[in-house]
Give the backbone structure.
Amino acid sequence: MIRLGIIGTSSIAHEFATAAKASGQFEIKAVYSRTQFNAQSFGEGYGADLFVTELDKFTALEEVDAIYIASPNSLHFEQAMSAIANGKHLIVEKPIFSNTKEWEAAFSAAKANNVFLFEAARHLHEPNFALVKNEIAKLGEIDGASFTYAKYSSRYDQVLAGEEPNIFSLNFSGGALSDLGVYLLYAAIAWFGVPEEVDYAAKKIQTGVDGAGTMLLKYPYFTASLHTSKIYNSFADSEIYSAKKTLILDGVNLIQSVELVDGETNERYQLAEKASGHFMDDEVQAFARVLNDPENPDTIEDYERWTQISRDVNRTMEALRKKAGIVYPADLDEA
């Protein structure tokens, strides 16, 4: 049983704790928050019995083997480095770090301290995500792709009222690209590889971050167009084009429908597998498999593949931000 500590008490942290506890692979042991009340209120329902408000004391707990981080984006790096220095394995919510400088420093430290560092990009581990990759290989030459993830955030109401919530703040490395666009980038890079060139037409809001935007990922023989937003909703499907055949997805994460359309015969084939269980089950089991069997060549191969994709996504996100002139305070700090 992997003894887990949790940093953050947000809704996504609740979801991960629920899946981790239900998996039978993790014991929720400790929670870190700025206040004792928040830590205890979050953790008691999952069986945690250690509640800490000082970061260094939390990451040094001998009763914890691994730590899950679900704090605001700009806090990930400091928290991760403290945990790594104390020999803890890490699962960090996407986006894992604010920039490539932080990414390289953290993964270098993790390797030096012989700990695993995972980015919690849950869709990478879903069966239908792998199914799409296999179907793309069958299509042959790709002519284009269009992915969309746009969902109105209730916190945008706070922005309109003159406030600056974390997810829409440069200080906390927020914005549509970092929060939702990262899902699209993971899909494009896992399925097509690293693009040769990128561009980002961002719609900036009054806090300075991108509230929405369109990314262009240019490959040798096609371009992928990625649309993301936290200030409006879109109900568009995501599509991959190959001459007379098109793959139509109901999204690039939590994929429930993968339809192959033959434009010549007008026939449609539903390819998706039916999902079951908690939506974080697959990533929880994937991380546990590596932590429980760290010498297995297959698990190490998976870990190295996930790490490379994380690196490529992080580098591409930074390049896109630069194209849009979006600079985080974290970019100006020395990692």
Observations:
- The longest strand covers residues 210-218.
